[in-house]
Design goal:
The chain is built from 13 helices and 14 strands. With 427 residues, the chain is α/β, with parallel strands linked by helices. It has three domains: 72 residues; 239 residues, Rossmann fold, CATH 3.40.50.300; 75 residues, Arc Repressor Mutant, subunit A, CATH 1.10.10. The strands form three sheets. The chain has a nine-stranded mixed beta sheet, sandwiched between helices. Strand 9 and strand 10 form a beta hairpin. Helix 1 packs across helix 3, helix 1 runs antiparallel to helix 8 and helix 6 packs across helix 7. The chain is globular.
Length: 427
């Protein structure tokens, strides 16, 4: 067996061991939580009280892991005098994108469907992987791993458009794309991703600088509104993907905005509490994509930035009828405050209705995926959408008006069978 395959085998063996331990720990913690004694068990574990842990585990009907207690004992906290740490010197913030994306951090980028958030994530990924300044801001070159939920062909066209538009080749760049979504609420799935990254690291000698998850909905595998599921998701990102002290990777999550409150991301508020940086992306009626920091845990809020989505005709690529194939890239422009929203598909009710429709389509995709069907057939009936709008507080007159305005603006279409489809905003 050559060295490469031996390293791969060892990585897989280590990963399986970590997965088994993580899964056992997850199930035990869930049982302890259901029994209402998780906090007691955790306190006993931290105190290395074997007898108390054994009794509490038996009360919850789960096995007691003495080895885990010993690991806790070995890794238990030690203290250093603050003066000694200060004398050793402070470490400045390490930036992947100066002022915007910190190394070894958890970041979140959220916005409505069609606002350009995936284009922004691709732009960041390409700039970091090639060492290209990000719209005038210095970058630190590093390997980037992009976990996409779906649409591999469309994703690759976007990378091709970035390469062509910026005249920067990606053929030798340390930029890697996953082949399928990962249900990261599962420790086993997160460890599987980590194992795949480790194999590439073993081959190239490059640890990940950034891992992009696009989108959370397609790479979650649980209930976004559940604090327990969101807590497991965040813990898995920290343990398996960031790996502080080893990889020190930045994990960038691309997510949808809330259904009613567009100033926050969708789902459990535990996510915002956990991230080090959060960015809101909006697309105005003027077609400008605006990106603004809504949280910076340990740094000053950077200036908001603005972009235009610019169409790119891909060189040498035609469809089956001989027509040129296009994609798009973000082009940096001066930031100006957005104009007041009008009634062409971006007003308050229209935005809420589009977000609800997007959520229903995502739910349909998830159901198809669980049943083993192709997710391209995800569809929502007009009546399902209307019922969801009624539950959101719209009366029948508001629902009628919002549907008419969105149809006139070209944001939705009704197809045979009474189904409603979401149309991306025109570039």
């Amino acid at each position: 067996m050559d060295g490469k395959h031996w390293r791969s085998l060892k990585l897989r063996q280590a990963s399986r061991s970590e997965v088994a331990g993580a899964v056992d720990s997850l199930f035990r913690n869930m049982a302890l939580s259901r029994a209402g004694i998780f906090d007691q068990y955790e306190a006993a574990r931290q105190a290395c009280d074997h007898d108390a842990c054994a009794k509490l585990a038996a009360q919850a009907g789960v096995p007691f892991d003495a080895l885990e207690i010993e690991k806790t004992k070995v890794a238990q906290a030690t203290f250093t005098r603050v003066g000694d740490r200060l004398a050793a010197g402070l470490k400045p913030i390490q930036w992947l994108v100066r002022g915007y994306v910190e190394a070894d951090s958890l970041s979140l980028m959220f916005g409505d469907p069609g606002c350009g958030k995936s284009f922004a994530a691709i732009d960041l990924a390409c700039c970091i992987a090639t060492g290209t300044p990000w719209h005038g801001n210095k970058t630190t070159t590093g390997a980037v791993f992009y976990i996409a939920g779906e649409g591999q062909n469309g994703l690759m066209r976007r990378f091709a458009a970035w390469e062509q538009h910026n005249c920067i080749p990606l053929n030798d760049a340390p930029l890697f794309v996953g082949h399928r979504p990962a249900q990261l609420v599962s420790a086993a799935a997160a460890a599987d991703v980590a194992n795949a990254v480790e194999e590439i690291q073993a081959e190239t000698g490059q640890a990940p600088a950034m891992i992009v998850i696009d989108t959370l909905a397609r790479n979650f595998g649980g209930d976004e509104n559940s604090q327990e599921d969101m807590g497991a998701f965040i813990a898995n990102l920290d343990a398996f993907l960031r790996k502080s002290g080893e990889w020190n990777a930045t994990v960038m999550i691309v997510h949808h905005s809330g259904h009613a409150d567009k100033s926050r991301s969708r789902g459990s508020s535990a996510l915002k509490g956990a991230v080090d940086a959060e960015y809101s992306l909006t697309k105005g009626e003027d077609g400008i994509v605006r990106m603004e920091a809504t949280k910076m845990k340990d740094a000053e809020h950077p200036a908001p930035v603005a972009f235009k989505l610019e169409s790119v005709v891909l060189d040498g690529l035609e469809d089956d009828e001989g027509e040129p194939v296009t994609s798009a890239v973000l082009w940096g422009i001066a930031h100006t405050p957005p104009a007041k929203a009008g009634r062409i598909g971006h007003g308050k009710n229209q935005t809420l209705a589009l977000s609800i429709l997007d959520a229903l389509i995502e739910k349909s995709r998830a159901n198809l995926e669980r049943r083993g069907y192709a997710t391209g057939g995800a569809r929502v009936t007009l009546e399902q959408w209307r019922e969801a709008l009624r539950e959101a507080g719209m009366n029948k007159y508001a629902i009628r008006d919002v549907q008419a305005s969105l149809r006139d603006a070209g944001r939705i279409v009704t197809v045979a069978g009474g189904y409603i489809e979401l149309v991306e905003s025109p570039l």
